Amino acid sequence: MDTTTTPQQRIEADVKAAMKAGEKDKLGTLRMLLTQIKNERIRRQEEVDEAGFVSLVRKAIKQREEAAAGFQKGGREDMAAKEEAEKAFLAQYLPAQADEGAVRDAVRAAIAGGAANVGAVMGKVMPQFKGRADGSLINAIAREELGKGGS
User: Fold this and answer.
1) What DSSP designation does 107 have?
2) Residue 117 has what DSSP assignment?
3) Tens of pLDDT along 88-141?
4) pLDDT digits (tens, 9 = 90+) for 32-58
5) 20 to 30 Å CA-CA from 77: which of 14, 67, 120, 128?
6) d(CA 118, CA 104)
């Protein structure tokens, strides 16, 4: 991938490809994401960098998860499936996720380095995995590892 391509340019290219392929569902999702990027660019008064883009994608994915859960509660499996499909499509724009073993190793290292509670562990580990691991995963592993130490 060209490193000089902005996230907006990447999405615009994907919009064109989806239009040519006639992929209406993808097109709608991409247009929504493109609008969010443009709004963020206006808010910041500068181009959206990769970290900002990842944050926007994560927010969009979280919105899809919440909507899918609501549709499932309401018995609308068709709409829930649509939201899940959009979520899976958006996930391809996220950086490769760190594996659980790497997160566990970092948590253990933080505990060995003196972090005695979940907050301290999170403070040391989160920056290492920014954008590559979900905070809830790190938190769960931290609680598990701290519980082993008999603290």
Assistant:
1) H
2) S
3) 888 888 777 777 888 888 888 888 888 788 888 888 888 887 767 777 788 888
4) 988 998 898 899 898 878 778 888 888
5) 14
6) 13
The CATH number assigned to the domain holding 72 equals 1.10.1510.10
One domain for residues 25 and 80: yes
Domain assignment present for residue 19? The answer is yes
Of 130, 11, 71, 47, residue with least CA distance to 138: 130
CA 94 to each of CA 16, 54, 67: distance values in angstroms, whole numbers, following the listed order: 20, 6, 20
Q: What is the pTM of this model?
A: 0.65
Residue type, 8: Q
Q: For the chain, give me the number of helices (H) and strands (E)?
A: 7, 0
Residue 2: inside a domain, yes or no?
no
Based on its alpha-carbon atoms, the radius of gyration of the chain, rounded to whole angstroms, reads: 19
Find tokens 């403070």 and name the residue.
123
Task: Tell me, yes or no, whether 79 and 111 share the same domain.
Answer: no
Q: d(Cα 109, Cα 38) in Å, to the nearest integer?
A: 40
